[in-house]
Queue: 2 jobs
Job 1
Amino acid sequence: MRWTPQRRLLLEVLDGTNGHVTGAELVDRLRAVDPATTPSTVYRTLRVLEEIGVVQHAHGRDGREEFHVRPAEAHGHLHCSSCGQSWEISPADAAATVQAFRDRLGFDIDLSHLSVGGTCATCREARTR
Amino acid sequence: MRWTPQRRLLLEVLDGTNGHVTGAELVDRLRAVDPATTPSTVYRTLRVLEEIGVVQHAHGRDGREEFHVRPAEAHGHLHCSSCGQSWEISPADAAATVQAFRDRLGFDIDLSHLSVGGTCATCREARTR
DNA sequence: CATACTCTTGCAACGCGTTGCAATAAGCCG
DNA sequence: CGGCTTATTGCAACGCGTTGCAAGAGTATG
């Protein structure tokens, strides 16, 4: 792995980011610092960073990429299709599900890539009221 | 809702489809019948069909759209990132998960849009062996 | 320090899906 | 049947992400 200016910059920007970012957002922030930034380089670098565990990505409800920086633990995400908010699924909450799929179907869920759509408690109450 | 030739054609092609199709595949099949087919019309029509329950869509592991035709029941999908195969999650298997999220987080999972990545039993065994 | 090896970059083009807008054509009503 | 309203279409352009390829720049080596 080579230590290039572009990668240095991407890591800097990622450090200034907490939580989730889409690919496009990252490109924008990078361009704000270095207008010469190229999307292909950014996305390629993100893939490399994912391989070595610096970021993880999943897909939002619309299929767009969302990157999660330096995750303490693998965890999935919840997206409310009504209010648009999103939350992390705590490892504790996910564990039972992961276990259930492993036991019943032998399928090993990739938690880091898990993105679940639906309706959050608040929106559901607001709707049924 | 208007009954146009384009919609008629799309429904015909959907009828000749079992299981899952990506948007691009549909456009290709439609073009094979009518070369004048326009992507925007196809995707717009698919959205309409989804609203009235004829199809449902989720996103594959790469974020691309996958349409499911005339689903008997809402159900999620499992995608193996190793062999690329995909399976339906039976309502029975999904029920416990849906219930768990509702109970613990108040979150109401949209099963029809659920797409879970991971490693299938076969691939996992092949790998650990 | 110069050299070679090969990993990275930028470019240009592509693929999938979406959107705004003007033109078209369904379906309704007299 | 003919005209009217408005849903639908096609076009063109855009947004996000990917890929092939040749040029460029890290890094290790002598």
Job 2
Amino acid sequence: MPSAALAAKPTKYDARRDAVVDAAAAVFAEFGYHGAGTGLIAGRVGIRQGSLYYYFASKEEALSEVCLRGVGDFLTGLEDIAQSTMPANEKLHAAILNHLRPVAERPDYVRTFITQRQHLPDASRRSVGRQVRQYEKALTELVRQGIAQSAFRSDLDCELMALAIIGECNAVFTWYGKRAKALSIAQIADAMATRFLKGIAA
Amino acid sequence: MPSAALAAKPTKYDARRDAVVDAAAAVFAEFGYHGAGTGLIAGRVGIRQGSLYYYFASKEEALSEVCLRGVGDFLTGLEDIAQSTMPANEKLHAAILNHLRPVAERPDYVRTFITQRQHLPDASRRSVGRQVRQYEKALTELVRQGIAQSAFRSDLDCELMALAIIGECNAVFTWYGKRAKALSIAQIADAMATRFLKGIAA
Amino acid sequence: MPSAALAAKPTKYDARRDAVVDAAAAVFAEFGYHGAGTGLIAGRVGIRQGSLYYYFASKEEALSEVCLRGVGDFLTGLEDIAQSTMPANEKLHAAILNHLRPVAERPDYVRTFITQRQHLPDASRRSVGRQVRQYEKALTELVRQGIAQSAFRSDLDCELMALAIIGECNAVFTWYGKRAKALSIAQIADAMATRFLKGIAA
Amino acid sequence: MPSAALAAKPTKYDARRDAVVDAAAAVFAEFGYHGAGTGLIAGRVGIRQGSLYYYFASKEEALSEVCLRGVGDFLTGLEDIAQSTMPANEKLHAAILNHLRPVAERPDYVRTFITQRQHLPDASRRSVGRQVRQYEKALTELVRQGIAQSAFRSDLDCELMALAIIGECNAVFTWYGKRAKALSIAQIADAMATRFLKGIAA
DNA sequence: CATGAATGAGGGTTCATTCAT
DNA sequence: GATGAATGAACCCTCATTCAT
């Protein structure tokens, strides 16, 4: 019964490991990669500095893992939307929501990914960079489709639009939870989508 | 008379000192405050590590100075615009241009200010933070005025709008010079203003 | 009856334990005592780091055991030869063979003993050092006997001779198996003995 | 006046640097590379641990430098001898003296080179290894010449001879200064050469 | 002003060792 | 016996900073 073997796959100390990654994400997000001490991370999990290396080979590897989880399913989510049959307007709305939702679910991961990925070791940085560019390209394409379907103005600079959306969404990570009253992610996404759509309607 | 205030500022051995501040801004922007070594800064000016301390009392002070120049006249520029007699539409356009112009003139300073000000010593950080909040408030107010004058839709969340504008402008610092072909700052500002205005028109 | 002595030695769970000691000897020989990690030793036996401590109280104790087996029966072998009735020439040949034979049988143990015994804890080091000096003394005495029997030149410095033989034999451990074609230990011993004897013949 | 420029070549703080290298050599020789703490080295020069890195980029680099000085002019000395017009007998004597002389002049360097070069970083280790093999080859060749000139027995294994000489000489580093009364290097070299020559005379 | 030299605190990391399971 | 997990001391190294020259 292979399914049994799969089901038996021991998640083991993944619980503790996840706690460590969580702590790393939180500390990286708060102090930046180089400003974060491993002792601080360890302290948040209630273990000693050296014990971290039972879970990670290095601080860099911890950053890599955090960033990987941070970049998460941004891309797949967007591609699902792009391939769907929704009209362009709804696609854009969905794309914004797709980008904003992680803000509430794993803010430290995404914040770290956005602001600290430059400190990744070369290999990971390039790998992550490729994903980012692919994401930008997919969003650019989504805008282009909207134009082709005459849903959006034809004089738009598609790439500029994509960067604008990404930039505005990323900025939300900066202040969400601290400012702008107590807006929900859905509300913010609605407002943003509405304004963007009005701004670029054909 | 603002020129008097400027002239009163003691300029002394500014030439060399400015070179040092420039180097610090560049290195902070590239590697982050904690990722930047004083040796690297010194190297870019062609002096040795220890010699830096003829220009700065500490690395923190260097960051403070860079951030101060980074925040620069964002606020005064915006207040000038707010107090002018332009119609709301033009004010918004002017505000965006005011925010974007430094991207071409002193990108390292602004980039450092945006991404590294969290590492300032407590006093400077709070002082700078106050300026930021004041800037946000001024921009929020500018939007509110537009609504009062029936130039913008009345269902806008003013603060959200201000944060959106700021976020989108700041994002430009991330990619300007590397992506989006060879757009000029003015072109970007035009496109952004046009879209924003269409999106929020009454 | 030496076989009785051997049989009396408590053998217990020797099989696995010997495997562990072997691994320790190999790793110590290759990386040196301080360059060898317990994890590496454990890995070679297929167990985990912590499990080593069912076989040893400490890494130092492992080194002690390896060195003890390394020094092995050098001394008793040499004393047997010294007390035999062979002529001096043959005694020297036998002594050289006695010293070289372990090179093929347990090279890692001897190599470790020769190069790493300085890192033994004080007690063991002194104990082992005493054996070494006794060995040197026995060999020195063997040369002295040869002179007394007019088999060797009378102007020899006996201690120097002993050290020379030991040094040359120990050096074999350095290159045996890697260089000097595919000479057998017996061939090397023959060549060495022949030359030494010609060099010191009366 | 180029000679003036050369003479002016500032030896600078080479004096202090040499003291540091000396200390490193001594500590490496006594405790082995991995058994030697940088703090111990620093302590012997009277500076703090971190200050070492003003003179070295890393502990490995210190080992490299020590080994380089350790291997010193063994090779060039031997090549000079080989190319000279001395008879084979004298050449061998000179070669032995050439190998032994450093024992009195820089024992820590040579001891470290002999016993610790395995811990060099890959690049240096291979480079040094090449020198060693060249040295062995040169000595082997010197023996072969002696045979060709009918000065040595024709049934000698030349490589084995070379390794024997090297091994015996290197062994001197082990005990010189501690054992064998108060023999001078010259005396030891004489005794060794005499015996070797008798042992291999045609 | 600038430097060579040094510092000392702290950094990330390794590793022999322990212990409940 | 063996393991996963944790420890704490020590390690090598970096770096902002100081200071006599």
